[in-house]
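Fill in residues.
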């Protein structure tokens, strides 16, 4: 089984990387972009018997900083 974890900064948390990308896009002429939020995607190959709860525990303990980030788990 595989799991894909999407990690993003929570709403209201400043995203300097996203702002840098937005600014760069504007400088390249893409002036219709008004905001960018940047995150990360983590693909996990899981052994038989692994559960979504196992992945959530991984996120809580290592993969996401739950103080400032939120995550979504997608089993693929």
């Amino acid at each position: 089984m595989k799991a894909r974890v999407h990690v993003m900064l929570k709403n209201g948390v400043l995203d300097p990387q996203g702002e840098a990308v937005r600014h760069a896009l504007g400088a390249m002429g893409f002036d219709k972009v008004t905001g960018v939020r940047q995150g990360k995607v983590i693909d996990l190959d899981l052994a038989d018997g692994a559960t979504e709860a196992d992945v959530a525990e991984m996120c809580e303990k290592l993969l996401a900083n739950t103080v400032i980030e939120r995550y979504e788990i997608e089993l693929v």
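The chain has one domain: 2-75.
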